[in-house]
């Protein structure tokens, strides 16, 4: 295991500044996810850590020692790439053992390591095959196995599942988490998929335009978003945002000051059918327009005082098109954002 410190790191390509002073500490054995929209700098940050890009400023430390000046092969890190990066002329066993061969390990050492990792990943039956004979999921396992065979304390993942279909992505998410629990290596995982981020990470660092917007556990990021960007980016389906006079009716002193936006996740709405409970607030009449069946739940699409709102209800809830119902929210699970700064006034 290894503790990582990223200190005020900057990186530009020409006049375009990609990293704008990143500060981040990753605990030994932690699984940290870097998430954000395309172009936010997450892959660049990972590549600078791996030594594939050089920093313009700042420092990178592992266990308190600077590694920013070291060549990639001297940083004791393994990396799993989006495109697998397998050698087409080598079979699976040769691909997995290639880095060990470069380290001048003996054939017996290489074979032992490759066989152990292949057994762990359940790909022992594939060792004699070439990459072109493998499915996408099998290639991803081989790429992961090649990284594990190096037995490094740090493993970096650069959007490794983006080329897989939804079913395989779900399987690989679970497998990678199980490997982390077993190996206890420090892992940093880059993705633009917020579902991967919230299901895999011990902590999540959300990036936007070269800066870290918020760091926290998946629960903290989801339930206590610091600003409008975090609230809109994390969560599927997305949070609802409501503006106008309705917001000023809320029983919060902050709602009466300035222009604000009410943020409510779809599952935090309820159909009002009786007396209000403590911490509940009735918003008004909701016009149901259509429903999407999601299995155990259904997503209702409709309007609240002319604003589009989506709510999640039980799939057994029966409604008729164009029905109007009273809608209420749980105030303890709702958010108030300053429209100008985007900051959450309720945390």
The total strand number stands at 18
Q: Segments where pLDDT lies below 50 for 5+ residues?
A: none
Name the helix and strand elements from N-terminus to C-terminus, one letter apiece.
EEEHEEEHHHEHEHEEHHEHEEEEEEE
* Main pleated sheet: 6 strands, mixed
Largest sheet, spatial ordering of strands = 6-7-8-3-9-10
What percent of residues are in strands?
A: 25-35%
Helix content: 25-40%
Structural class: alpha+beta
Mean pLDDT over the residues: 92
State the name of the first-level CATH class of the largest domain: Alpha Beta
The domain tally reads 2
Count of alpha/pi helices: 9
**Oligomer state of the chains in this structure:** single chain
As for the CATH topology of the largest domain, it is: Rossmann fold
Distance between the termini: 34 Å
CATH architecture of the largest domain: 3-Layer(aba) Sandwich
